[in-house]
Write a structure and sequence with these properties.
Layout (H helix, E strand, L loop, with lengths): L6 H18 L4 H8 L3 H8 L7 H10 L5 H14 L14 H9 L2 E6 L10 H11 L5 H14 L11 E7 H5 L5 H15 L4 E6 L13 E5 L8 E4 L6 E3 L2 H17 L3 H14 L4
Length: 286
Amino acid sequence: MASSVNPTVRRRRLGQELRRLREQRGMTAEEVADRLLVSQSKISRLENGRRSISQRDVRDLCGVYEVDDQRIVDSLMQMAKESRQQGWWHAFGDIPYSVYIGLETDAASLRVYEPQVMPGLLQTPRYAEAVVAGALPEASAEDVEKRVQVRLRRQERIHDRKSPLRLWAVIDEAALRRVVGGKQIMRDQLEHLLELSRLPHVTVQVLPFEMGAHPGLNGQYAILEFPDAADSTVVYLEGVTSDLYLEKAGDVHSYSVMYEHLRAQALNVEQTREFVEDIAKEYIRG
């Protein structure tokens, strides 16, 4: 469930405030770095929320920006303190995509395109285990289990009665055809997909092979939007060794337009359910 204090979101909001203060002073990140005898990259990471920020960092930056209002300083210091707290995912140890989990935990809506496998939030435990084990052939059984448990914990957002995540998923036909873990696991997975697709806050569309070329050929991506207008929309691109987070208005707009084209080219909701039901029948239980 979404926590009352999300350290990832706190870092983003704090970084946005610090960037605003710097821009009000008409200073560049390089000038601030020179004043504090730190690297320019540190200032950039603090502002984009990718780096943990200490109360001392906040104090020093407020000094450079000549912030006279102690209430503002105190508020930023409190945000810095909260940003160093641990989210629920820290209990599982070192998770490579912890930044994404923090964003997803606080998001109001998520639009995702998946070309190869089922979206993580819609996976069954057995399917998730097969996906993780296949994608990470050198991972230990313990690491595979940890990642599966994190994935299942993330799915709680779908079933949160008070504030469920609004999920829109466009899934390529390849994800339905790829036999992950065996035919029975696939049948169970497709039946699970059909069940979740009937939830009022979950929309599933399939992009069939016959549609040919489409804007999603470059791969998977997700668009996260947040309940607080102060939190900018984020486009998430998953990588093998590192992930990419895009927040510039132009980038978000481009990916949003691409997603609209994907939704337009995909089967509608009812057609998708019929399509998934037909494929599920092809997977005979063992």
